[in-house]
Amino acid sequence: MNLHELSPAKGSKKDTKRIGRGHGSGQGKTAGKGHKGQKARSGGSIRPGFEGGQMPLQRRIPKRGFNNIFAKKIIAINVAALNVFEDGSEVDTTALKNAGIIKKEYDGIKILSNGNLTKKLIVKASAFSDAAKQKIEEAGGKVEVI
Question: Which of 140, 143, 78 is nearest to 115 (CA)?
Fold first, then answer.
């Protein structure tokens, strides 16, 4: 194959539509804009969501609630989920990811007290509930706030 033998893929090259060049072209007279109306005028385009003066949908629907953009996303993990680790092991974010308990860390991890803990673990997280802290320490483990 040589450079002079190269050609574009079939159907990839298309001539531009020449509008307003006489009725023989098929796009003459009104140039594909139809007869009169706002869309036929120059500069006659309407913004997205405009409904001809009717109250737009996004303004008709009632607004409720508040979305705090500064809110921190904290993942809650129950004490019972920590039983998958071996006795005496250190549980932190990487260990939780490897065990498949969490997928992402986000802004922090909080350990909650639902369930029972039977293993002696060193747990490192950003927050603990008081009852969860008590259960970990009763099982002989340690609690560290990161």
Answer: 78
Q: Is the pLDDT at 88 greater than 90, yes or no?
A: no
Report the distance separating Cα 91 and Cα 128, nearest Å.
13
Phi and psi at residue 77, to the nearest 5°: -125, 135
- The model's pTM is 0.56
Could you tell me which residues are beta bridge partners of residue 90?
122
Q: Work out the pLDDT band at 4, boundaries 50, 70, 90.
A: very high
CA distances to 95, 107, 122, 123, 133 from 79, rounded to whole Å, are: 15, 19, 12, 10, 9
Query: Could you please report the per-residue DSSP string of 100-116?
Result: TS-S--TTEEEEE--S-
Query: CA-based Rg of the chain, rounded to a whole angstrom?
Result: 33
Tell me which residue of 97, 79, 101, 91 sits closest to 146, measured CA to CA: 91
**Where does the chain have alpha helices with state H?**
57-60, 93-99, 130-138
- Three-state DSSP class for residue 84: helix
Segment 84-102 shows an average pLDDT of 91
Instruction: Report the DSSP beta bridge partners of residue 91.
Output: 123
